[in-house]
Amino acid sequence: MIRIVVVDDHPVVRDGLRGMLDGQPDLVVVGEAENGRVALDVVARESPDVVLMDLRMPVLDGVGAIERLSATCPAIRVLVLTTYDEDHEIIRAVEAGATGCLLKDAPRDVLFDAVRSAARGEPVLAPKLTAKLLGRLRGPRPESLTDREVEVLGLVARGLTNRAIGRELAISEATVKTHLVHAFTKLDVDDRTAAVTVALERGLLRLKRR
Fold first, then answer.
1. Higher per-residue confidence, 17 vs 140
2. Got the DSSP string for the chain?
3. Are residues 172 and 120 in the same domain?
4. Do 183 and 97 belong to one domain?
5. 131 and 196 share one domain
6. 205-210, long-range: CB within 8 Å, 24+ apart, which pairs?
7. Cβ proximity of 2 and 26 under 8 Å
8. 112, 129, 182: which is closest to 152 by C-alpha?
9. What's the mean pLDDT in 74-92?
10. Taking 80 as the threshold, does the pLDDT of residue 123 lie above it?
11. Given the DSSP bridges, would you call strands 27-33 and 50-53 parallel, antiparallel or unpaired?
12. Lower CB density within 10 Å: C or N end of the chain?
Protein backbone atom coordinates (compact mmCIF):
# COMPACT_ATOMS: atom_id res chain seq x y z
CA MET A 1 0.00 0.00 0.00
CA ILE A 2 1.34 3.43 -1.01
CA ARG A 3 0.84 5.98 1.77
CA ILE A 4 0.14 9.54 0.61
CA VAL A 5 -0.04 12.98 2.19
CA VAL A 6 -1.95 15.66 0.25
CA VAL A 7 -0.78 19.27 0.61
CA ASP A 8 -2.99 22.01 -0.84
CA ASP A 9 -4.46 25.21 0.56
CA HIS A 10 -7.91 24.50 -0.92
CA PRO A 11 -10.06 22.09 1.13
CA VAL A 12 -12.15 21.13 -1.91
CA VAL A 13 -9.01 20.07 -3.79
CA ARG A 14 -7.81 18.01 -0.83
CA ASP A 15 -11.21 16.34 -0.48
CA GLY A 16 -11.34 15.56 -4.20
CA LEU A 17 -7.86 14.05 -4.24
CA ARG A 18 -8.57 11.97 -1.15
CA GLY A 19 -11.75 10.63 -2.72
CA MET A 20 -9.98 9.64 -5.93
CA LEU A 21 -6.85 8.18 -4.36
CA ASP A 22 -8.60 6.23 -1.60
CA GLY A 23 -10.67 4.55 -4.30
CA GLN A 24 -7.59 2.72 -5.57
CA PRO A 25 -6.76 -0.61 -3.90
CA ASP A 26 -3.05 0.18 -3.55
CA LEU A 27 -3.28 3.88 -2.57
CA VAL A 28 -4.30 5.48 0.72
CA VAL A 29 -4.27 9.10 1.92
CA VAL A 30 -2.90 9.13 5.48
CA GLY A 31 -2.79 12.89 6.01
CA GLU A 32 -3.57 16.37 4.69
CA ALA A 33 -2.05 19.83 5.11
CA GLU A 34 -3.14 23.31 4.07
CA ASN A 35 0.37 24.76 3.74
CA GLY A 36 4.01 23.74 3.68
CA ARG A 37 4.64 24.30 7.37
CA VAL A 38 1.77 22.05 8.44
CA ALA A 39 2.92 19.52 5.83
CA LEU A 40 6.28 19.14 7.57
CA ASP A 41 4.52 18.13 10.80
CA VAL A 42 2.10 15.77 9.06
CA VAL A 43 4.89 14.07 7.12
CA ALA A 44 6.98 13.65 10.26
CA ARG A 45 4.02 12.05 12.00
CA GLU A 46 2.74 9.82 9.18
CA SER A 47 5.94 8.88 7.28
CA PRO A 48 4.22 8.63 3.86
CA ASP A 49 5.74 7.19 0.72
CA VAL A 50 4.59 10.08 -1.48
CA VAL A 51 3.63 13.70 -0.83
CA LEU A 52 1.35 15.42 -3.35
CA MET A 53 2.48 19.05 -3.09
CA ASP A 54 0.88 22.23 -4.35
CA LEU A 55 3.31 25.09 -5.09
CA ARG A 56 1.51 28.32 -4.27
CA MET A 57 0.44 28.27 -0.63
CA PRO A 58 0.53 30.68 2.32
CA VAL A 59 2.92 30.49 5.30
CA LEU A 60 5.40 28.18 3.52
CA ASP A 61 5.13 27.52 -0.21
CA GLY A 62 5.68 24.23 -1.99
CA VAL A 63 9.30 24.82 -2.97
CA GLY A 64 10.22 25.78 0.58
CA ALA A 65 8.53 22.67 1.93
CA ILE A 66 10.23 20.45 -0.68
CA GLU A 67 13.65 21.84 0.27
CA ARG A 68 13.08 21.00 3.94
CA LEU A 69 11.67 17.56 3.21
CA SER A 70 14.63 16.77 0.95
CA ALA A 71 16.97 17.65 3.80
CA THR A 72 15.10 15.83 6.57
CA CYS A 73 13.25 12.99 4.79
CA PRO A 74 15.15 12.23 1.55
CA ALA A 75 13.45 8.83 1.13
CA ILE A 76 10.01 10.42 0.83
CA ARG A 77 9.04 11.24 -2.76
CA VAL A 78 7.39 14.58 -3.53
CA LEU A 79 5.14 14.86 -6.56
CA VAL A 80 4.15 18.43 -7.38
CA LEU A 81 0.53 18.90 -8.42
CA THR A 82 -0.05 22.44 -9.63
CA THR A 83 -2.41 24.58 -11.68
CA TYR A 84 0.46 26.64 -13.08
CA ASP A 85 2.86 25.55 -15.81
CA GLU A 86 5.39 28.36 -15.41
CA ASP A 87 8.86 27.07 -16.26
CA HIS A 88 10.78 28.73 -13.46
CA GLU A 89 8.46 27.38 -10.76
CA ILE A 90 8.71 23.81 -12.07
CA ILE A 91 12.50 24.06 -12.33
CA ARG A 92 12.75 25.43 -8.78
CA ALA A 93 10.62 22.55 -7.48
CA VAL A 94 12.72 19.91 -9.24
CA GLU A 95 15.96 21.55 -8.09
CA ALA A 96 14.59 21.53 -4.54
CA GLY A 97 14.14 17.77 -4.74
CA ALA A 98 10.73 17.02 -6.27
CA THR A 99 10.49 13.65 -8.01
CA GLY A 100 8.16 15.07 -10.63
CA CYS A 101 5.32 17.41 -11.52
CA LEU A 102 1.80 17.10 -12.88
CA LEU A 103 -0.82 19.70 -13.73
CA LYS A 104 -4.08 19.54 -11.82
CA ASP A 105 -6.05 18.95 -15.01
CA ALA A 106 -4.30 15.60 -15.54
CA PRO A 107 -6.69 12.63 -16.02
CA ARG A 108 -7.13 10.58 -12.86
CA ASP A 109 -5.47 7.49 -14.36
CA VAL A 110 -2.40 9.60 -15.18
CA LEU A 111 -2.37 10.83 -11.58
CA PHE A 112 -2.62 7.30 -10.18
CA ASP A 113 0.22 6.06 -12.39
CA ALA A 114 2.33 9.10 -11.50
CA VAL A 115 1.92 8.42 -7.77
CA ARG A 116 2.95 4.79 -8.27
CA SER A 117 5.96 5.84 -10.36
CA ALA A 118 6.98 8.45 -7.78
CA ALA A 119 6.75 5.84 -5.01
CA ARG A 120 9.24 3.73 -6.99
CA GLY A 121 11.55 6.74 -7.25
CA GLU A 122 10.94 7.20 -10.97
CA PRO A 123 10.85 10.80 -12.27
CA VAL A 124 7.45 11.99 -13.48
CA LEU A 125 6.73 15.02 -15.65
CA ALA A 126 3.53 15.92 -17.49
CA PRO A 127 3.98 15.76 -21.29
CA LYS A 128 3.02 19.43 -21.63
CA LEU A 129 5.68 20.41 -19.12
CA THR A 130 8.29 18.16 -20.72
CA ALA A 131 7.76 19.88 -24.06
CA LYS A 132 8.02 23.34 -22.51
CA LEU A 133 11.15 22.59 -20.52
CA LEU A 134 12.89 20.88 -23.42
CA GLY A 135 12.05 23.83 -25.62
CA ARG A 136 13.54 26.14 -23.05
CA LEU A 137 16.71 24.05 -22.70
CA ARG A 138 17.17 23.71 -26.46
CA GLY A 139 16.41 27.33 -27.20
CA PRO A 140 18.98 30.10 -27.54
CA ARG A 141 20.73 31.21 -24.38
CA PRO A 142 18.83 34.08 -22.75
CA GLU A 143 20.12 37.58 -23.32
CA SER A 144 21.69 39.42 -20.45
CA LEU A 145 19.79 42.25 -18.84
CA THR A 146 21.07 45.74 -19.51
CA ASP A 147 22.27 47.85 -16.60
CA ARG A 148 19.10 49.93 -16.84
CA GLU A 149 16.86 46.86 -16.83
CA VAL A 150 18.64 45.63 -13.69
CA GLU A 151 18.13 49.05 -12.09
CA VAL A 152 14.42 48.96 -12.91
CA LEU A 153 13.98 45.43 -11.54
CA GLY A 154 15.87 46.39 -8.40
CA LEU A 155 13.37 49.18 -7.79
CA VAL A 156 10.47 46.84 -8.57
CA ALA A 157 11.84 44.52 -5.90
CA ARG A 158 11.70 47.43 -3.45
CA GLY A 159 7.99 47.81 -4.18
CA LEU A 160 8.10 50.97 -6.29
CA THR A 161 5.43 51.63 -8.91
CA ASN A 162 6.34 52.42 -12.52
CA ARG A 163 5.70 56.11 -11.85
CA ALA A 164 7.93 56.10 -8.77
CA ILE A 165 10.65 54.25 -10.68
CA GLY A 166 10.49 56.88 -13.40
CA ARG A 167 10.97 59.64 -10.83
CA GLU A 168 13.83 57.76 -9.19
CA LEU A 169 15.69 57.24 -12.48
CA ALA A 170 14.60 60.51 -14.13
CA ILE A 171 12.93 58.72 -17.04
CA SER A 172 9.32 58.63 -18.24
CA GLU A 173 6.82 56.05 -17.03
CA ALA A 174 6.53 54.81 -20.62
CA THR A 175 10.29 54.18 -20.71
CA VAL A 176 10.03 52.22 -17.46
CA LYS A 177 7.35 50.03 -19.04
CA THR A 178 9.55 49.47 -22.09
CA HIS A 179 12.46 48.33 -19.92
CA LEU A 180 10.13 45.95 -18.05
CA VAL A 181 8.75 44.48 -21.27
CA HIS A 182 12.29 43.84 -22.53
CA ALA A 183 13.23 42.24 -19.20
CA PHE A 184 10.09 40.05 -19.26
CA THR A 185 11.01 38.81 -22.75
CA LYS A 186 14.61 38.03 -21.81
CA LEU A 187 13.59 36.24 -18.62
CA ASP A 188 10.64 34.45 -20.26
CA VAL A 189 8.13 35.66 -17.67
CA ASP A 190 4.81 37.50 -17.73
CA ASP A 191 4.78 39.72 -14.66
CA ARG A 192 6.88 41.88 -12.35
CA THR A 193 7.08 39.43 -9.45
CA ALA A 194 8.22 36.57 -11.68
CA ALA A 195 10.81 38.83 -13.34
CA VAL A 196 12.38 39.73 -10.00
CA THR A 197 12.27 36.11 -8.83
CA VAL A 198 13.96 34.73 -11.96
CA ALA A 199 16.53 37.53 -12.08
CA LEU A 200 17.49 36.77 -8.47
CA GLU A 201 17.66 33.02 -9.13
CA ARG A 202 19.98 33.55 -12.11
CA GLY A 203 22.21 35.95 -10.23
CA LEU A 204 21.33 38.80 -12.57
CA LEU A 205 19.93 40.90 -9.75
CA ARG A 206 21.29 41.39 -6.25
CA LEU A 207 19.26 43.26 -3.70
CA LYS A 208 21.16 45.84 -1.71
CA ARG A 209 20.77 45.87 2.05
CA ARG A 210 19.16 49.07 3.25
1. 17
2. -EEEEEE-S-HHHHHHHHHHHHTSTTEEEEEEESSHHHHHHHHHHH--SEEEE-SS-SSS-HHHHHHHHHHH-TTSEEEEEES---HHHHHHHHHHT-SEEEETTS-HHHHHHHHHHHHTT--EE-HHHHHHHHHHHHSPPPPPPPHHHHHHHHHHHTT--HHHHHHHHT--HHHHHHHHHHHHHHHT-SSHHHHHHHHHHTTS--PPP-
3. no
4. no
5. no
6. 205/145, 205/150, 205/153, 205/154, 205/157, 207/154, 207/157, 208/154
7. yes
8. 182
9. 82
10. yes
11. unpaired
12. C
Q: At which of 85, 115, 137 does a domain end?
A: 137
Q: What is the pTM of this model?
A: 0.64
In order of 9, 17, 53, the CA distances from 74 in angstroms are 24, 24, 15
Is residue 206, in this structure, part of any structural domain at all? no
Within this chain, do residues 56 and 156 fall inside the same structural domain, yes or no? Answer: no
Domain hosting residue 92, numbered range: 2-137
| Residue type present at position 136 | R
